[in-house]
Amino acid sequence: MVQATARHLLVETEEKCEELKQQIIAGADFADVAKANSSCPSSAQGGDLGSFGPGMMVKEFDEVVFSAPLNEVQGPVKTQFGYHLLEVTSRG
């Protein structure tokens, strides 16, 4: 089974998500931005979600993680939890 590793951050609004995405694109460290802003418990690890397979995350998340280019910030991705930025760090 294909496995991926990814990191993400979770915020309440699309606007905040876009603002943080621009900070990361401008050179801010993804992990630092996640630690400071994400409401997900993974923020303590800089948003690192570890390794997982298809179907282990919500559908909207899976669609991005298993199709997006590696090491590029994706999002905002809306789920029932809020708005995410995602970065796929490996897949194979």
Description:
- Its main location: cytoplasm.
- Belongs to the PpiC/parvulin rotamase family.
- With 92 residues, the protein is an alpha+beta fold.
- The chain has a single domain, classed as Chitinase A, domain 3.
- The chain is built from three helices and four strands; from the N terminus they run βααβαββ.
- It has a four-stranded antiparallel β-sheet with strand order 2-1-4-3, with helices on both faces.
- Strand 3 and strand 4 form a beta hairpin.
How much of the sequence lies in strands comes to: 25-35%
Q: Would you state the CATH class?
A: Alpha Beta
Q: Sheet with the most strands?
A: 4 strands, antiparallel
Determine the N-to-C terminus distance: 8 Å
- The proportion of residues forming helix, as a percent range, comes to 25-40%
GO molecular function: peptidyl-prolyl cis-trans isomerase activity
Family: Belongs to the PpiC/parvulin rotamase family.
Function: PPIases accelerate the folding of proteins. It prefers amino acid residues with hydrophobic side chains like leucine and phenylalanine in the P1 position of the peptides substrates.
Keywords: Cytoplasm, Isomerase, Rotamase
